[in-house]
C-alpha cells in the first residue's frame, strides 16, 4: 500500500513522527498548481522535494525555486511556506531533530542524486510502521546520502520594507518584467534613491543584481525540463538567447547547456 497520499494542504503530522528508532518518515502529497502550504514549523527537520513538479519555498527571509532534481533542507522549528508552481508529487522527508544532517538554522539546497531518489521512492512504498527494520535501514541510508548532497543554491533574499516587498513580489511573480527602478519607485510610492538604498541595506545587493538572482532561480527548472533556451530567455525578459547565455556564463563560468551537461547544478 505504501505511504498514504494526501490531496490537500491542511497541516497534519505524519502517521509515524520521526523518532530515535525511525529517524526519517515521509508525508506524501499530490497537489495542483497554485496550491500552497501556509507558513508553519515543526519540531523535526524537513527535506522538502518533489518527485515531479516545481515548488517555491519561502523561509528565513529568502525564497528558492526548486525543480525535481533539487530539494531543500529546513532545520527544526524554522518557519517555512510552500507554493506549488506546477502539478507536483510532493514527498517531504521528516527528520528527527537529533539526526539533522546539517548544523545550524540555515536552509541548504540539495542535489537529489539518483541513489537518493531511489531511496525516497523505496521509503514511499512501505506501509508506515509495518516494516520497522527496513524503515530504519532506509532512514540510515537516506541520512548518509543527504550529508553528501549539499550544493550551491540561487538564493533570493526577501525584504521587510513594505514598499520593497511590493516591488519584489511583483518581480518574483513575473520575472520577465523589464521596468526600471524609476518606474517601480512611482508604483510603490518611494523615490528611486530610497529604493536603491533599501536594496543595498535589506538585501545586500543592487536592484539589478537581485532581479538577476530571481531570473536565474526561475531559469533553473525551465532549463532542467528541456525548455529551449530561446524560450527561457524570452520568458525572463532578455532581448535574445545570446544575452541570457552571456549573463549565465558570467555568473557560472559556462553556458547553460554546458553547465547542465556537466552534471553540475544550480
TrEMBL record:
Task: State what protein this is by name.
Answer: Helix-turn-helix transcriptional regulator
Taking the record's annotation, the residue ranges forming a coiled coil are none
- Which organism's genome codes for this protein? Janthinobacterium kumbetense
InterPro entries documented for this protein:
AraC-bd (IPR003313), Homeodomain-like_sf (IPR009057), HTH_AraC (IPR018060), HTH_AraC-typ_CS (IPR018062), RmlC-like_jellyroll (IPR014710), RmlC_Cupin_sf (IPR011051), Tscrpt_reg_AraC-type_HTH (IPR020449)
| Record domain HTH araC/xylS-type: where | 162-262
What Pfam families would the database entry show?
Answer: AraC_binding (PF02311), HTH_18 (PF12833)
Keywords on this record?
Activator, DNA-binding, Transcription, Transcription regulation
Q: Which PROSITE patterns match?
A: HTH_ARAC_FAMILY_1, HTH_ARAC_FAMILY_2
Matching entries from PANTHER family are given as: HTH-TYPE TRANSCRIPTIONAL REGULATOR NIMR, TRANSCRIPTIONAL REGULATOR-RELATED
Amino acid at each position: 500500500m505504501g505511504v498514504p497520499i494526501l490531496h490537500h494542504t491542511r497541516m497534519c503530522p505524519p502517521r509515524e513522527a520521526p523518532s530515535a528508532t525511525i529517524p526519517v518518515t515521509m508525508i506524501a502529497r499530490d497537489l495542483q498548481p497554485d496550491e500552497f502550504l501556509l507558513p508553519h514549523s515543526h519540531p523535526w527537520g524537513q527535506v522538502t522535494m518533489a518527485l515531479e513538479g516545481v515548488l517555491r519555498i519561502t523561509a528565513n527571509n529568502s525564497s528558492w525555486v526548486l525543480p525535481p532534481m533539487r530539494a531543500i533542507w529546513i532545520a527544526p522549528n524554522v518557519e517555512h511556506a510552500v507554493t506549488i508552481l506546477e502539478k507536483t508529487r510532493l514527498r517531504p522527508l521528516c527528520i528527527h531533530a537529533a539526526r539533522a544532517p546539517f548544523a545550524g538554522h540555515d536552509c541548504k539546497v540539495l542535489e537529489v542524486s539518483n541513489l537518493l531518489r531511489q531511496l525516497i521512492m523505496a521509503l514511499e512504498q512501505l506501509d508506515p510502521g509495518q516494516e520497522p527494520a527496513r524503515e530504519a535501514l532506509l532512514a540510515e541510508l537516506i541520512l548518509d546520502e543527504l550529508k553528501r548532497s549539499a550544493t550551491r543554491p540561487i538564493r533570493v533574499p526577501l525584504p521587510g520594507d513594505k514598499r520593497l516587498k511590493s516591488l519584489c513580489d511583483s518581480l518574483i511573480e513575473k520575472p520577465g518584467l523589464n521596468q526600471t527602478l524609476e518606474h517601480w519607485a512611482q508604483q510603490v510610492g518611494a523615490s528611486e534613491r530610497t529604493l536603491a538604498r533599501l536594496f543595498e541595506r535589506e538585501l545586500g545587493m543592487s536592484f539589478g543584481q537581485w532581479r538577476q538572482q530571481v531570473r536565474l532561480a526561475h531559469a533553473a527548472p525551465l532549463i532542467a525540463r528541456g525548455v529551449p533556451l530561446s524560450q527561457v530567455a524570452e520568458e525572463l525578459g532578455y532581448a535574445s538567447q545570446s544575452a541570457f547565455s552571456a549573463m549565465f556564463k558570467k555568473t557560472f563560468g559556462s553556458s547553460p547547456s554546458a553547465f547542465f551537461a556537466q552534471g553540475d547544478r544550480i
